Amino acid sequence: MDQTARFDLPFLAPGQAQKEWWHNEGLQRIDLLLCPVVEGPPMTTPRASPPAGSCFLVASGATGGWAGHDGALASLTDAGWKYIAPIEGAQVMDASSGQMIVHRGGAWESGIVRAREVRVDDQTVVRERQPAIADPAGGTIVDAECRNGVASILSALRTHGLIA
Prior knowledge:
The protein is 19% helix and 21% strand. The protein is an alpha+beta fold. Strand 5 (91-94) and strand 6 (100-104) form a beta hairpin.
């Protein structure tokens, strides 16, 4: 085994010639993976003349210099394009939107947050979805304004997916 299992970082071997090349290749990959920020959502062709160090997600059906690297994380180095095949759960930040993009099920997924709960200042504001609440009905005195208010609240909770 001459590479790491997850990201193919090259190992140095005793007596290996040109160790600096292998070492520098490993540093290039670490530089790309340490805190990956991509220029935008997946693209099929590289931008014209991006600066060295720019990172992109290669979309399916890529052409030109990216052909054959669908789904990869691509970074332009002084030596040309470097490609890293993503692993399940790999995350990058999209600099154009500020959103996290996660590699799930063989594809890059953006704009979806998966969590059991959301907290703000250690206060839980969203938890698992609760069962449905019946619309107001019945009673001996009908207060249309109250019913409309409760119905609006229930509609908002359903729209946000907080109740069924």
